[in-house]
Structures are given as structure tokens and as C-alpha cells.
Amino acid sequence: MVSHPYVLLALTTLFWGGNAVAGKLAAGHVSPMLLTLMRWTFACCLMAPFAIAHVRAEWPIIRRHLVRLFLLGACGFTLFNASLYLALNYTTAINATIEQSSMPLVVFVLNFLLFRTRVTPYQVAGFGLTLVGVALTASHGDVTTLLTLSLNVGDAIMLFGVLVYGAYTVALRVKPDLSWQSTIFCLSVAAFLASILAAGIEYSLGNTIWPDLTGTSAALYTAIFPALIAQSLYIKGVEAIGPNRANLFVNLVPIYGAGLAVLILGETLEFYHLLALAFVIGGILLAERGGRKTWADSAKNAGPSHPG
């Protein structure tokens, strides 16, 4: 069995990169909110046998923090994934993965604004580079469109999802002290409950698309690989080499995502995509270089900084 942390973390980011591709494949085969509901239904069922014992042992803590856990799961898991799958009905998987790669620096900015986390010149420069990369992606290589606000609606929805997940990650500072099995399971159950509401609203508006084989397969992939296996591998990787070094592997997500989108979906990799990737990854690496201790402390308090 493969156990080297670099391999575990490389597989983690590969599965996360495939999440956007699966969502794009599902477009037109299952509606976004129903896909989100199916994802968390499958995830809860698959995870339950491994988590129930931990939940029972830690139930007194869980019961005291039910509202907090529900809000974390509803926002971080349901609202983010619903935004991703909805966005992929209007934009490309390449765009979505590049825009998601700004997540670590969104967390950095929110930590600075809310908790006055120390800022270094490297972090400021890195944040600036990442903004350039995201702007290039969202504007499809023509940043002048930002001045007229004529952005693709899918890119706008994806950027909203990035902000939501960034806020969720910062909010994990106040999550109760539970085992990772109980934490992920409780958040997944909360996501399942919130997804019922979202799917119900979608149905009432007449926008539900019932899943065919492609839609069901995409939902199974998102539940098994990004939601369960990747999160477990990420935790093992963090335990082996520490959160700061493990967090650098998140930079592989847009690379994997773009590659899979080209190979599986036949999307075109434009020059501005390559330029945006260079800006985003360079910005994150620059910020990491200037604030490793700060980021390590933040990671210990906040947990994983990328959605699964």
C-alpha cells in the first residue's frame, strides 16, 4: 500500500482537480442542486460505517455544538459545491479550477481582516499576483471586461463560491475539538440536510433535471474521491509532513484540473490560462515563502484550505 506523503498528497489534489471535471460532465445530465444532494447522500452512506463509533463516543461534544456544525457544513460543503456545479453550467472546468486556486490567499486576507494576522511584503506581493491570475481567468484573457462588469455568469458564481469556502475555512477556528472522522461525518450530514432545502427550491422552480447514468456516475465520483478519499489522504499527508508543507500541494489542483479538462472534456487550453496559472501558483508560493510560520499556525487552527 502506498504511504509516502508526497504520493498521498499528489493523489489528493488529482481527485480535487477531477471534481470540476465531474461537475462539468454532469451539466445537462443532472441539475446542480440535485447533484449536490446526491453527492452528500452517497458520502454520508459510505462514511457512516467508519464514523458512527466516533460520533457516539463524542456525542456530548457534538450535541453542544450542533448549530455551529450545521452552519459550517451548510456553508462550506453545500453552498460551495452547489456554487461550483451551478457555475460549471456556464463556464469551463479550466476556468473553475484556476479560480479555485485563489482559495489559500482568500483565507489569508480574511484572517488579516478579521484577526489581524501578521502581513509580510511577500504575502502582499503574492496576493497581488494571484489577483492578476484570477482576473485573467474570469475575464477570459481580456481584463478590460472587468471595467464594464460583463463577466461570464459562471465565473462570477465560482468566485462567489471561493469567497464562501474561504469564509468557511476561517470559521473552522471555532469548530469543536473532534476526531477527523466525527468532524467530516457531522459536516457531511449537515451538508446533506442543507442540500435537501436547495434541491427542494430547485424543484419548486421547475429546474430539476433527474439524473441519467452520466449524472449518477458524476455524483458517485464526487462523493467517493473528492469528498471521502481525498480528505482522508490529505489528513494523512498533513500528519506526515505538517500542514505548511502539505498546503503547497494545493497548487497542483489547477494544473490537474486543466489537464483533465483538456484530456477528458476536450476543452481548449488558451495562452491566458497558462499565464493565469503562472500568476496564481507564483503568487501562492511567494506568499508561502514570506509567511510560513503564520500560515502553519493558521492551518493548525483552520484545517484544510481547499474544498474536496
TrEMBL record:
What stretches pass through the bilayer? 38-57, 69-88, 94-115, 122-141, 153-172, 184-206, 218-235, 247-265, 271-287
Could you list this entry's UniProt keywords, alphabetically sorted. Cell membrane, Membrane, Transmembrane, Transmembrane helix
Q: Which InterPro entries match?
A: Diverse_Substrate_Transporter, EamA_dom, EmrE-like
Q: Where in the cell is it found?
A: Cell membrane
Mainly resides where?
membrane
Highest taxon in the source lineage:
Bacteria
User: Does the UniProt entry include the keyword Transmembrane?
Assistant: yes
Q: Does the keyword Hydrolase apply?
A: no
State the membrane topology: Multi-pass membrane protein
Q: Which GO terms describe its cellular component?
A: plasma membrane
The EamA domain covers which part of the protein? 6-137, 154-286
Return the protein name. DMT family transporter
Q: Which organism is it from?
A: Fulvimarina endophytica
